[in-house]
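task queued by scheduler; priority normal; single chain, no ligands, no partner chains; default sampling; output format set to structure tokens
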Amino acid sequence: MVGSDGALDIAVVWHPDTDRHRDITGVWIGIPEPGDEEPDRTAAIARALRARNAPFVEAVGHDDSTLLAVHERAYVDFLDSVHAEWVADGYPERTGQPLVMPYLFPSRAFTLGELPRRPSALHAWIGRYATDTMTPIAAGTAVAARAAFNCALTAADLVVQGATSAYALTRPPGHHVGRDFFGGSCYLNNAAGVAEHLRRSGIERVAIIDIDAHHGNGTQAIFYDRADVWFGSVHIDPAAGWYPHFVGHADETGRGEGIGATMNVPLPETAGDAEWIEAVAVLCAHAARARPEAVVVSLGVDAALEDPNSPLRVTEAGFRVGGAAIAAIAAPTVFVQEGGYVVDRLGDFVTATLDGFRRGT
């Protein structure tokens, strides 16, 4: 709840190792682009939450059982080891590139439709897992991604232990990561980890609400065939040319046992508070019909009017109403930080969402 003194009573789970992913420069259509997913993002959010006297909890380590339930072991091993291999193979000296970058992507043209065999050249193998050239791997990336994943699982633990809500201050974000692919500035899927961890802790039905401006394609892919985890996303219409471009359409509703357990609400580029709030309310109403025993929120705030990474025009007040709509599902809730790149406003948007939620519970 929100105290009479303005304190925000929600545990904030963090870890200093999330700062070890830094100094990222990607390539967009051949143009070097400085990264905007840097430690100042979480620092800004932490300042805002500390100003509201939210209690901070340092994340604890977990074994890999949940991690390997949502990601293939070969991918996790790749993420853990590829930067050291890049350095050992001499790429920084030979090329001047300290970041692990893909060179080509093994499409059907290369593989005859089969999973590729590993080539001897490391730079030709990275594209087996990478989906874009804007998500390179730095020296501290794997450590930071694991720290973020542990933040998410620690927040889930708090809810399992009886908390009504918890917030995981995670970076790198995670919702663009599938079982064996990464991209979109994401390396491990924190929200998927929370949902799986809750399920493994005895919670039978979980709903994931993704309010990031971009579709949670990795999360959708992980649970697309499952009925026990309901997934809903509101995002900019990928057909309008926005990441992740190929998925996130309204007709994607699940497969096999998971038919009906996925819902996408794409928005036009001009959408502001009214359209966004209505879409979040629709998602939450459908999620409530699935009778979840717990909710996971992929809390991206890059739908904000000020954010350059999407054309949506949501205001601080809009995020507050969205938080209240999530509260109406009436289930213990874990918030997991995703996108949001206007550093001087990030704290405002995150606290507004959490305020709305806590006032609605």
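post-processing summary
- The chain has a mean pLDDT of 96.
- The chain has one domain: 11-360.
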